[in-house]
Amino acid sequence: MAKSWYPVIDYELCIECNACFNKCSHGVYKLEGERPVVVYPEGCVYGCRGCQKLCPVNAIQYVGDIGGKESSGCGCCSC
Description:
Fe-S_Ferredoxin, alpha+beta, 4Fe-4S dicluster domain-containing protein
C-alpha cells in the first residue's frame, strides 16, 4: 500500500455516483451521506487507477501522480 499515492476527489466535478466507493476493495473510501470521501489514503495501491477509470466525470486525480501510465499490477483492477 502507498502513502505517496492516493486519490483526491474534485467535488466541483463529482456527481456522487459512488463508482469509486463501489470499486475500491481496499477501504480507501467511505460514504458521508451520498458523497464518497477518502478516509484511508494509505490503503490505496501505488499505481492503481481503477477508481479513476470508472469515474464518468474525471473527478479523481492522485497525489504522487507524475503523469505516467504506471501500473501497480495490484490485481484489484485491470489498470
